[in-house]
Specification:
The two termini are 41 Å apart. This protein has 20 helices and 25 strands. The protein is of the alpha/beta class. α15 links the parallel β13 and β14. Among the domains are: 242 residues, no CATH class; 101 residues, no CATH class; 102 residues. α3 packs parallel to α13, α7 runs parallel beside α10 and α12 runs parallel beside α14. The protein has a 9-stranded mixed β-sheet. It has a 4-stranded parallel β-sheet with strand order 2-1-11-12, with helices on both faces. A 4-stranded parallel β-sheet has the order 4-3-5-6, with helices on both faces.
Length: 682
């Protein structure tokens, strides 16, 4: 009797049982010269002992990713079809010298966005271009700051974004004629001149008044940059539960703060690395926020300053930072923006001016600002953050995401995406095999020193390859893991049988598999179970070919009318594949079949197609971090920071690795790493 043990997968899953785990983070490793690790980029960025971000934060100087219209696996990152998969604009602020054409093109492709550049001959012209493009009908309020230094413009950008107005730049001693012309076009009723006479002279203010005789022109300023930021907060923010704080001594970490603060209608205040200036303290006491977000590592805003902020407000102070300026901007995008943002704004990390004016536009568009430089390859953390805020999601309702799992336990290699649940997404898990060909099924009893803490196959010994007992044990573990990971509430499974499929004008036959007796049989039977938030389609196809993976996906897509939504989005492969020279190598034939199919056949969905790959593999396009990784992979035998109570994955699947799967940051065994990299194909 053939046993499609996948039926057991879907029986009466119960509420989530989360194991208590230790929670910890660790500094990211330095990159080596061979390209597997990448070195921190700038001497003025946060030091190595800065508080680590919630995600890897190295800077990509070059990872071998190439652009090509040829959709082959060898070419890596692919350009999306012009009329498909577009979720908004990727806007470069400034010319090609500050955000290169190659970097913009790659960011637009990997984020499924239309590349747009707004730049001028200088910073004043770029600010005018941003204003003209995003405020075509004028603006009621305009903020005018010096283009010769950063602090006043950065703190003004948050307020301008919240009030849906532009920031224009001026020289200290004279108002450029082009800026005066833009003021006339905007026809504001009020112009706010930010900063004292040392940064924007009284002569400039007089010129603005002559240019706009019907407008109110008011200066908002203090005796220094800290007091000016405080004056802006006092003028525009009557109350706020949230305040953003950044360094007033250097601009990189503060650049991305404006759009995030604008979203919360919160002010940005400035501090030094070691002290809270009196003007800043006065505003913190006045506003009395429950949360202060400190942007930047401990090298730019010390832990002592954070402690002082807590004492002043009586609330919490939370650091949002990365190992460098690129990673800090990415961490801000991760923390304060959710998919799908209307736009993605990209500015140069080493020149403040375009970022100041772009920050106000980003705030108006409710979009993050990420950082790049003049090189043709964007920083890796920038790509990753940009992709995360660009998931294809419908403007209303829900979208189907298909996750294609090669073997039970391989789902974890896509968990950084699969586990990021979103109310607008309906997950469809496609399990292709029962893992019955596993070398772990050798007929020997399971024995390891952590047996008493783990879910183990019973009764022992386990079955041999292709046996019904092996299938049972693999799928029992899969069922237990998914239950503990929160995939509960599906209806009892129903058995269905699929027939041949047609795709691209050719017939895709029913797959073949090996029975328990060793005979070759058709593998058309599968199990379907549907829940409110996800569905599982469980096949029993044995060794896989790319056509068999295609058949399973097509069969599943044919079930769409059974799901709560019929709007299709992304396809995510689960089965780590790495044939590169760096990292953990995995060239399993089944994994390769999933990788090959998703990388060579455009399924034509509105979303994109992804496969988990090695961290340094040329096809890698972006990455993501598994939320609560310790909850999955912590283990009593693990090194710090992963030592702790048994995680869900270790509990369910420990028997497949003698009781312990080593956890870690990148390219861990079988792809069960905290940070997971993906190829993006179509």
């Amino acid at each position: 009797m053939r046993a499609f043990i996948a039926t057991a997968v879907l029986l009466a899953l119960v509420a989530v049982a989360t194991a208590p785990v230790a929670s910890a983070t660790t500094s990211e490793p330095d990159w080596t010269d061979d390209g597997y690790f990448e070195s921190p980029s700038r001497s003025d960025d946060a030091p190595d002992d800065a508080a680590p971000p919630d995600r890897p934060s190295a800077v990509l100087d070059g990872d071998g990713v190439t652009m090509s219209s040829d959709r082959s696996l060898a070419t890596g990152l692919q350009a999306a079809p012009a009329g498909n998969r577009i979720v908004g604009s990727a806007i470069a602020a400034g010319g090609t010298a500050v955000v290169s054409g190659g970097a913009l093109t790659k960011l637009a492709s990997v984020t499924d966005r239309t590349a747009t550049r707004i730049g001028g001959a200088d910073r004043y012209a770029t600010a005018i271009g941003l204003s003209a493009t995003h405020f075509p009908d004028g603006a009621a309020e305009v903020w005018l700051a010096t283009g010769e230094n950063f602090p006043d413009g950065i703190t003004a950008s948050a307020i301008a974004g919240a009030h849906r107005g532009p920031v224009l730049l001026t020289r200290t001693a004279s108002l450029p004629a082009s800026v005066a012309a833009e003021l006339v076009r905007l026809a504001p009723t009020r112009v706010w001149v930010v900063g004292g006479t040392g940064v924007v002279s009284d002569g400039v203010v007089a010129t603005v008044r002559r240019t706009l005789p019907g407008a109110t022109v008011a200066r908002v300023a203090g005796q220094d940059r800290y007091a000016t930021a405080a004056a802006i907060a006092k003028t525009f923010v009557a109350s706020s539960d949230v305040v953003f704080v950044a360094s007033g001594q250097n601009f990189p970490d503060a650049l991305s703060t404006g759009p995030a603060a604008a979203r919360r209608k919160a002010p940005t205040l400035l501090v030094t690395a070691t002290a809270v200036p009196a003007a800043t303290e006065a505003q913190l006491r006045r506003l009395h926020p429950t949360t202060v977000y400190v942007i930047g590592g401990s090298g730019v805003v010390s832990d002592g300053v954070m402690s002082r902020i807590r004492n002043i407000t009586g609330g919490s102070a939370s650091r949002v930072s990365g190992a460098d300026r690129f990673a800090t901007a990415s961490a801000v995008a991760d923390r304060f923006f959710t998919p799908t943002t209307p736009s993605l704004i990209v500015a140069n990390a080493f020149s403040f001016a375009d970022g100041v004016t772009a920050g106000a536009v980003a705030g108006t568009l409710a979009s993050p600002l990420v950082l790049a430089d003049g090189r043709s390859t964007p920083p890796r953390v920038t790509v990753d953050a940009a992709r995360r805020v660009s998931w294809w999601l419908p403007s209303e309702g829900r979208v189907l995401r298909y996750t294609v799992v090669a073997h039970p336990d391989d789902e974890f290699s896509a968990w950084s995406l699969l586990g990021a649940r979103d109310a607008r997404r309906y997950d469809v898990i496609i399990v292709l095999t029962t893992g019955e060909s596993s070398s772990y099924c050798d007929g020997d009893p399971v024995s390891n020193q952590w047996m008493s803490q783990q879910y183990l196959p019973q009764p022992q010994p386990t079955g041999e390859q292709y046996s019904d007992r092996c299938k049972t044990h693999r799928m029992d573990s899969w069922r237990e893991f998914m239950r503990r990971a929160g995939f509960t509430g599906t209806a009892p499974p129903e058995s269905l049988v699929g027939g041949p499929q047609t795709f691209g004008g050719r017939t895709i036959p029913v797959p073949l598999a090996r029975s328990a007796s060793g005979a070759t049989v058709e593998a058309g039977s599968y199990q379907l179970s549907i829940g409110a938030d996800h569905a599982v389609v469980a096949f029993d196809m044995g060794l896989l070919t790319a056509d068999e993976v295609l058949w399973a996906i097509l069969t599943t897509r044919g079930l769409a009318e059974r799901f709560p939504t019929q709007v299709e989005g992304d396809v995510v492969g689960a089965g780590f594949y790495n044939d590169g020279s760096s990292g953990y190598s995995n060239t399993s034939a089944d994994h390769k079949a999933v990788y090959t199919l998703l990388g060579s056949v455009d399924l034509g969905l509105p979303g994109s197609q992804y496969s988990p790959v090695g961290h340094a593999q040329s096809a890698r396009a972006f990455g993501a971090t598994v939320a609560n990784y310790c909850g999955f992979m912590c283990h009593p035998a693990a090194p710090s920071p992963f030592r702790g109570s048994m995680g869900r994955f270790e509990y369910a699947y420990g028997w497949l690795a003698n009781g312990y799967w080593p956890p870690g940051e990148f390219d861990q065994r079988a792809g069960f790493s905290r940070y997971q990299s993906f190829a993006k194909w179509f």
